[in-house]
């Protein structure tokens, strides 16, 4: 299915980023709890759909095995020392990020620093308990599905001669990293660069280990970190504002008895 694979790659690398930017802008313009919950559900469905198509197009090969047999990057695939250094370094880095995020649970100064850094993305981050529960599903879905698509499928397609572009492992890693960064264009240039760096690291982990298991775990952990350092429902300005909006809707309903509290059209 070379033609279908090529069409899917074009959709992932070009069409998806172009479609995602206006969709996320709409959320940013109307970032209510209901809008975020609806967006989370849409993201979950989209991620699993992309993973399912990737698995179908890659069959009978499995996407969980990184294509380490492709030419290139022998410094990593041919050296046990380099492989363990890459995997160990990634574990250490994510461990440090996790420890710092958990520290924000008890250190108000650290928490405020994280809250300030998260300001550009607060429109998409979970505020209430229900949103936070759905965010867990989003994080797990992103960790599994994005690794299957951007590391499993793309590495094989870009690097495999005959069925793909035949760029070798190095070229496949670079293009898949760029594609992963571009799909986060809705976060702005900083988000593209940040996501590209994370995607590149996860790609190296997948290549070094020969499978996607560790990359998936690290990806999920990274996406779960906002649950520790972003907690507006517990007294921050954003949380107070959200409660204020709810009170305002109740007062408006009292002033307009013809419209019930639940009527928010």
UniProtKB/TrEMBL annotation:
Key word Isomerase present: no
Record keyword Transcription regulation present: no
Record domain CAAX prenyl protease 2/Lysostaphin resistance protein A-like: where: 134-224
TM annotation in the entry: 6-22, 43-64, 84-102, 134-153, 165-186, 198-222
GO-annotated molecular function: endopeptidase activity; metallopeptidase activity
An annotated GO BP: proteolysis
Name of a matching Pfam family: Rce1-like
Alphabetical UniProt keywords: Hydrolase, Membrane, Metalloprotease, Protease, Transmembrane, Transmembrane helix
InterPro entries for this protein: Rce1/LyrA-like_dom
PANTHER family noted in UniProt: CAAX AMINO TERMINAL PROTEASE, CAAX AMINO TERMINAL PROTEASE FAMILY PROTEIN
Protein name in UniProt: CPBP family intramembrane metalloprotease
């Amino acid at each position: 299915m070379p033609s279908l694979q090529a069409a899917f790659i074009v959709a992932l690398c070009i069409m998806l980023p172009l479609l995602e930017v206006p969709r996320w802008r709409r959320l940013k313009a109307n970032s209510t709890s209901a809008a975020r919950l609806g967006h989370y559900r849409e993201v979950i469905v989209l991620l699993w759909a992309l993973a399912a198509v990737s698995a179908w197009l890659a069959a009978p090969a499995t996407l969980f095995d990184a294509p380490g047999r492709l030419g290139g990057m022998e410094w990593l695939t041919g050296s046990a020392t380099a492989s363990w250094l890459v995997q160990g370094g990634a574990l250490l880095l994510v461990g440090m990020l996790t420890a710092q995020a958990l520290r924000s649970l008890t250190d108000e100064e650290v928490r405020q620093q994280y809250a300030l850094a998260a300001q550009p993305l607060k429109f998409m981050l979970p505020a209430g308990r229900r949103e936070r529960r759905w965010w867990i599903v989003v994080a797990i879905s992103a960790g599994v599905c994005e690794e299957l698509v951007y590391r499993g499928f793309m590495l094989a397609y870009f690097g495999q001669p005959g069925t793909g572009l035949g760029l070798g492992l190095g070229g496949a890693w670079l293009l898949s990293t760029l594609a992963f960064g571009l799909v986060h264009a809705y976060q702005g240039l900083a988000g593209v660069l940040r996501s590209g760096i994370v995607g590149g690291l996860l790609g190296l982990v997948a290549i070094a280990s020969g499978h996607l298991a560790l990359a998936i775990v690290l990806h999920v952990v990274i996406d779960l970190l906002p649950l520790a350092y972003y907690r507006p429902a517990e007294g921050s300005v954003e949380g107070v504002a959200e409660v204020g909006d709810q009170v305002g809707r109740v007062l408006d309903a009292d002033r307009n008895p013809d419209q019930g509290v639940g009527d928010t059209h």
